[in-house]
Amino acid sequence: MKRLFAAAFIAILVYVASAQSSKQQWREYIFPNDDFAITLPASPNPHNDNGDRHINVYAVQMGKTVVSLRVISRAMECEDGLAEMWDKAQNSTDLREPVIKSSLKQLSLPGMQGMEYETDLGGGERSLHRFECADSRKFYIFNVGYQGKQRPPEVTRILNSFHLVNQAHK
To answer: How many CB atoms lie within 10 A of CB 23?
Structure first.
């Protein structure tokens, strides 16, 4: 009985220590070349999207949840781009990944305009699509895949931590 209690106690200590260490891994990462900072549970591995030097990808995986941020650095019209994406989402007929119409919303973030919506991937999985633009040079696209109908709190923490930096030179 004592051995069983000791083993259970050690297992609980290991679990608590592991939970605390995973909480301590969260930190803010600043990417001045792409004008943003974000809090993540692990360091992302920035890379170009399919070799396109105008698109940088920052991704982090948390179990079955994957958060990917694409930063597009090229001249584009912010309002026109968002309006086009809104129309596409609102009128989507994609049966493989249908847009959940009630999730479509406009965003007003400090220094940015944006929109987001969720899609149903089937099998209890969803994907969040968030588009934010700061000016005619930077466009930020979040794609988040997760299990269940509710957005995991870690995803909300990441999204809420995202903010612009280095705006003084603009």
So the answer is: 9
Which CATH code, of 1.20.120.1200, 3.30.1380.10, 1.10.357.10, 3.40.1000.10, is assigned to 30-169? Answer: 3.40.1000.10
Cα 6 off chain centre by? 41
Q: What are phi and psi of 89, to 5 degrees?
A: -70, -45
Beta-carbon-side half-sphere exposure of residue 20 (alpha carbons within 13 Å): 6
Name which residue leads in pLDDT, 23 or 42: 42
* Of residues 106, 118, 42, 49, the one with CA closest to residue 78: 106
Please list, in sequence order, all residues whose beta carbon lies within 8 angstroms of the beta carbon of residue 12, skipping any fewer than 6 positions away: none
Mean confidence (pLDDT) of the chain = 84
